[in-house]
Amino acid sequence: MDADFEDGKIDIVASGIRPSHPLDFKVDWPEGNKEYGFVLFHGPVMLEDISGRRPRPPGTCIFYLPFQPRYYHGLNGALDHTWILAIGPGVLGCLTDYGIPVNTALELGELEFLEPYIQGVRQERLHLLDHYEDAITDLSRDFFRRIGVLIAQNAEPLSVAQRVRANTLSEVRLAVHSDMCRRWTVPDMAAMSGLNPARFATEYTKQFGASPVDDLIDARLRRAEYLLKHRSMTAKQVAAECGFTSPEHFSRLFHARRGYSPGQFRRL
Questions:
Q1: CA distance linking residue 266 with residue 254, whole number of Å
Q2: How far apart are CA 148 and CA 109, in angstroms?
Q3: 246 and 188 belong to one structural domain
């Protein structure tokens, strides 16, 4: 498996297809999960997203970034949902590439391709054939692409100005994440976009689901995860490679946002 593929890898670590729950079951996790999450609700649900907490109809779905708050419970009966937990640097790339908003309720209806996708991933994990990790990534990218198509079909067309701004922000993000060792500030990033810092931060957060600083920290941590798992580097070397100011700063942030120390993560 080459380095480019590793950088875009996606893995599904857990999933559930309409599991049974008691009537009073609810998810109320203020600190979220360490994984990316996706949930499709087959029945009416009380769901909290960036717009607040309110009832949503069947066919609502939502994507979560790691460590985003998650709150939902079924209405008029037990929670009826299908879900996945995903890891890997390719997840955020798919969310960005296919224009999928995070922590935002999406009313896309029943997704006929969701269960076959989960079953396909489970089969790959069961048989562990050669290159099964590649197959899971391919299945996952196709799932994200299908979601992106549905969102595009349901969305109002972007104006020329909106499209230009979205492309500019994507270019800024790519430049920043390609030079992680630089001591970036929001004004530095904003200068590349032609927006003032406050407007830039607002537009960036709206487009990518995280502030410029939090998004950069998460990118550094994802790179650190890859290096810890796939390279024989010390924590000090990883910290320097990923742009952290010191090994101590790296360890504190890693533990705060991932729930493990770098050493513990390497042993998982």
A1: 12
A2: 14
A3: no
Of the candidates 232, 219, 240, 229, the residue with the CA atom closest to the CA atom of residue 262: 229
Do 99 and 7 have their domain in common? yes
Find, among 236, 232, 260, 233, the residue nearest to 248 by Cα: 236
Number of structural domains, the chain? 3
**pTM confidence score:** 0.59
Check if the beta carbon of residue 53 is closer than 8 Å to that of residue 47: yes
Q: Is the dihedral of CA 204, 97, 2, 266 positive or negative?
A: positive
CB atoms within 10 A of CB 199: 12
Tell me the pLDDT tens digit for each residue of 192-236: 999 999 999 999 888 777 789 988 998 898 889 888 988 899 999
> What is the tens place of the pLDDT at every residue in 122-150?
999 898 888 889 999 999 999 999 999 89
| 150 and 72 fall within a common domain | yes
- Show the domain range for 164: 160-210
